[in-house]
Amino acid sequence: MEDNQELSELQEIARVATFSALEGYEPVPEAWRTNLTLGTFFENGFCIFELYVAGSRPKDAITISSARVNRETRAVEVLITNLAKRVFA
After folding, report:
1. Cβ pair 49, 14 in contact under 8 A
2. What φ, ψ does residue 61 adopt, rounded to 5°?
3. pTM (2 d.p.)
4. Structure confidence by residue, pLDDT tens digits, 44-83
5. What is the per-residue pLDDT for 3?
6. Which of 14, 22, 66 has its CA nearest to residue 6?
7. Looking at the DSSP assignment, which residues form a beta bridge with residue 43?
8. Residues of 23-35 as b/e, b for ≥16 C-beta within 10 angstroms?
9. Average per-residue pLDDT in the chain?
10. Torsion on CA atoms 76, 82, 85, 86, rounded to nearest 10
11. Which terminal residue of the chain has fewer beta carbons within 10 Å of its beta carbon, N or C?
């Protein structure tokens, strides 16, 4: 079982980085907001946090972001999908 304190720290790193990355994209559609879900899993020294819209079946889920936090260095990478980039005039 993973350490809850470590998980909380990694989640906060991912939250801040994801929020910052999302600033460059159009808002999440209102219809998606009621089914937003945060998935968390560990893979090869990373903790990965995926923000997605749950569907009636797993294959119907719509991933919005994936934040990979290195458990050793705490470096984070965020990938945003299924949202349009904001256009600034």
Report:
1. yes
2. -65, 150
3. 0.89
4. 999 999 999 999 898 999 999 999 999 999 999 999 999 9
5. 83
6. 14
7. 46
8. eebeebeeebeee
9. 94
10. -110
11. C
**Is pLDDT at 1 greater than 60 in this prediction?**
no
Distance CA 54, CA 72 (A): 30
CB contact set of 68 (below 8 Å; sequence gap of 6+) = 46, 47, 48, 76, 77, 78
- CA distances to 3, 30, 71, 77 from 82, rounded to whole Å, are 32, 14, 27, 17
Tokens matching residue 7: 């998980």
Of 69, 71, 67, the C-alpha closest to 79 is 67
Copy the structure tokens of residue 19. Answer: 């929020």
